[in-house]
Hints:
Layout: H1 4-14, H2 39-50, H3 62-74, H4 88-100, H5 104-112, E1 127-131, E2 137-142, E3 146-151, E4 154-159, E5 165-167
Antiparallel strand pairs: 1-2, 1-5, 2-3, 3-4
Helix pairs in contact: 2-3, 4-5
Amino acid sequence: MKNPVDALADARSxxxxxxxxxxxxxxxxxxxxxxxxxxxxxxxxVVAGALDxxxxxxxxxxxxxxxxxxxALTGVNPGLAHHGTYRGRxxxxxxxxxxxxxxxREGITKLLxxxxxxxxxxxxxxxxxxxxxxGQDHIGVCLGATAALLAKSGLNQVALDDCSAAWPVGR
Length: 171
C-alpha cells in the first residue's frame, strides 16, 4: 500500500490518463445516476480530504468514503440511509447482512444496483472490493491504476489486480 501523500499525487496525475475517465451522456447509468459535470474536481477534493480525516468505523470508514466519492461523481449519496446505523466491525457486518443477506460483495451489489465486474475494467470513481491479509473486506475507489482504501492507517492504495471486484458508479 502507498502512503497517503503518494496516493493523492497519483490520484491527481491519473486524472484523464485512463481510457474512459470521463463520462458522456451516452454512458449507461449505475443505480439510475450519471456522472455530472465537474465530477473530476469534486472527486479529487474528496480523495484529498480523506488524507486529513481520522478513520472511525461507522463515522468515517471505507464505506462512507466510497459514498462520498459516489456523491462527488453523481450528486447522490447511495448510502445515506445507512449512515449512523452501525458502529464497530460486528455492527457493520450485521447491517450488511440485514440489508443484503450476505457479505460486502452482496451489499455493494444491492446498494449500487449493478453486478460486479472485473477490476481491470474499472474507471476512476468506481467502487472496488479488496480483502486484507486477515480476510476482512474493504470498499475502495478506483483512482486509475490503483484503488484508494480508507483504513485505520489512513488513505492507502492497492493495485487494481489485488482487488476482487469492481462496480461502475455513474456510468
